[in-house]
Amino acid sequence: MTPSLRRPLGILALLAGIFAYAIFVVWLFEPVATLHPLIQLPIWLVLGIAWVFPVKPLLVWIETGKWRP
Asked: Which one, out of 10, 42, 49, 56, has a CA that is 20 to 30 A from the CA of 19?
């Protein structure tokens, strides 16, 4: 078997995506921090979980070469 570039490219895409998402969340910090804490809580919970959803198809692609299982 010849090695595939899928794994290194997928890992780089994953790292770049997480980095971009982190920059986006930091950008949102100041406006959200001025809100009441009970309003902040669901916002931070959603933002803390939302990054996971785009990761699954990327991990499937890294392992199988297809975007869907």
From this structure: 42
d(CA 1, CA 28): 46
The token duo for 29 is 């910090």
- Residues 15, 38: Cα–Cα separation, whole Å: 31
DSSP code at position 34: T
Q: At 7, which amino acid appears?
A: R
Q: What pTM does this model have?
A: 0.80
DSSP string, 47-67: HHHHTTTTHHHHHHHHHHSSS
pLDDT confidence of residue 66: 83
Take residue 39 and report the two structure tokens written for it. Answer: 């309003």
